Amino acid sequence: MLKLIAFRIAQAIPVMLVVAVLTFLLMHLLPGDPATIIAGDQADQASIDQIRRDLGLDRPVPVQLWHWIVNLAQGDFGRSLMLNQAVADAVKERLPVTLSLAMLAFAITLPFGIAFGVIAAVWRDTWVDSAVMILALVGVSVPNFWIAILSVILFSVTLGWLPSAGYVPLHDSFSGWLASLIQPAVVLALFQIGYLARMTRSAMLDVLDQDYIRTARAKGVAVNTIIVKHAFRNTLMQVVTVAGYILSLLIGGSVVIEQIFALPGIGRLLVQAIMARDYPVVQGTMLLLGFAFVFINILIDLIYAYVDPRVRYD
Amino acid sequence: MTDATTLPAAAMPPRSARRRILMRRLWRHRSFRVGAGIVAVIVLMAVAAPLLSGGQPNAMSLRNRFAPPSADFIFGADNFGRDIFTRVLYGARISLWIGFASAMLAAAGGALVGMASAWFRKLDGIIMRIMDALLAFPAILLAIGINAALGPQVSSVIIALASAYVPRMARIVRAAALVVRELDYVDAARVSGAGAGRIIFRHILPNVMAPLLVSVTFVFAYAILAEAALSFLGIGPPPPHPSWGNIIAEGRDYSVEAWWIMLFPGLAISLAALGMNLLGDGLRDVLDPRLKIEA
């Protein structure tokens, strides 16, 4: 297991390097010259040149890339142009909001997605299966920002049960935190619940077709025991493999959801930064999220290897 | 083992008969039928937009500002008095085109990268590390980043969405191509002197088409949703274009008083994505039953 951990981390280093180079190159395609933007409308050519020199933008691209990587290695993600703040600090401030939202949505997704999938598989080809699978299909087909607006009209404007916007930090008040996040989290989770239910159903049906299930049935094991102990546990393995993808969908989806519910998270920061052409922030956020997912994927591989010995000895 | 890619060619009926059997099996699949029906109706309405509505999508009429749905304006009118029904019809053209073009581009890119990776084993390590790096970004974030870099045009939305989906396609194609390259007829082609290009395009490509086609339909559905999200964030096709996402974004400020502005384009998006997903489910069940859902 230790050897596997070391191997996976060693494998991650080139991937992280490629992530860094890709984000760097991406942002160098951005239209508009950051020096002109910082200098403002009134600036003359001399001061623009001065800013360009200060930022190192007059140097050749490979040199800039080298400096970018060296700075990254020292934990320096650059400075925001619009916020007068280090990118790392700006992200750190907003991270709890996005993490709260994504984790709450994840916590909603898992039980519902798995339960729906298992129910559909167990009652395969009955009206229960059809009903659950149609719901799941609607879940993966409806745009979440549209549902968000409809949900605000119903729950916030008409019924007045939940706030329509804003964020209450967890350490201020738990109930306020939950009230501010429950609506965005449920809306955000809908797509992933549908996806996971579809995934779980097909994984469960795969397992139910296996020889060992037939053997268990033949030797007289109770149907419930087969479903819970044999089929469900093996289905869970497959769920672990898509957990990273689900988290990735959730973080991606939160960009749009944060915008609607005015939650001051990373997604909002990113959209503001793009509008303001604040490219160190765009670069930094993309990079941090990229790195985060490299590690999440390693973590999931390790969990998978831990729960399934067959993977470990492969 | 009924997978088409693993059956020896000699055991199969001729190509035309095979295609007919496949079509019949597809047509018997309920999801495929319903999905194909929904998609066909939406595409027809988009093509026939000028016949279904006499108006222009950007024609304003201050007299009809915020007109609720009625016999004249079946979907109502927006804050400029523009007819929502006409805008949704013409919006279908842009949204479907972006979805279609980005799914096709992603498929072409993914097929090239995946097959190159499977055939040229020396490149495999580098290519797959780059794909891993791209996969590390949530797809919509990658699309937002690339789109921001390219500027607000329809073509940049297409390139952005396609690039976000190339890595996933490449993985699927690579996995299928790795199986195909070990088959006897590929060896036979190699021994008889066929070059890499010929083997890849004549012998490997046809045999990775099934998983490719299935994922294209799911990516199409996802691209429609992603395009709408990008437009909603204000980084999609520029505003005078009535894409479905743009209409919702414009109607958002009036969502309580004039709910019809955002309701109908949202229904259109949902229906289009639903149709493509049903189509994909049918294709998967018939063509490639072991492929995991990629929606």
Automatic annotation (TrEMBL), chain A:
Swiss-Prot/TrEMBL keywords: Cell membrane, Membrane, Transmembrane, Transmembrane helix, Transport
GO CC list: plasma membrane
Family matches, as PROSITE patterns: ABC_TM1 (PS50928)
Molecular-function annotations in GO: dipeptide transmembrane transporter activity
Transmembrane domains' residue ranges: 12-30, 101-123, 135-162, 174-197, 239-266, 286-307
Topology class, membrane: Multi-pass membrane protein
Compartment list: Cell membrane
Domain ABC transmembrane type-1: 95-304
Coiled coil: none
Top-level lineage group: Bacteria
InterPro entries (UniProt xref): BPD_transp_1_N, MetI-like, MetI-like_sf
Pfam families membership: BPD_transp_1 (PF00528), BPD_transp_1_N (PF19300)
Entries under SUPFAM superfamilies matching the protein: MetI-like
Family indicated by similarity: Belongs to the binding-protein-dependent transport system permease family.
Protein's name according to its UniProt entry: ABC di/oligopeptide transporter inner membrane subunit
Species: Primorskyibacter flagellatus
TrEMBL record, chain B:
Transmembrane segments: 32-52, 94-114, 150-166, 208-235, 258-280
Domain ABC transmembrane type-1: 92-280
Membrane topology category: Multi-pass membrane protein
Gene Ontology CC annotations of this record: plasma membrane
Superkingdom field: Bacteria
One record GO biological process: protein transport
Subcellular location, record wording: Cell membrane
Keyword Cell membrane in record: yes
Family annotation (InterPro entries): BP-dependent_transpt_permease (IPR050366), MetI-like (IPR000515), MetI-like_sf (IPR035906), OppC_N (IPR025966)
Keywords annotated in UniProt: Cell membrane, Membrane, Peptide transport, Protein transport, Transmembrane, Transmembrane helix, Transport
One Pfam match: BPD_transp_1
CDD domains the UniProt entry points to: TM_PBP2 (cd06261)
PROSITE patterns according to UniProt: ABC_TM1 (PS50928)
Family classification: Belongs to the binding-protein-dependent transport system permease family.
Name the record gives this protein: Peptide ABC transporter permease
Organism: Primorskyibacter flagellatus
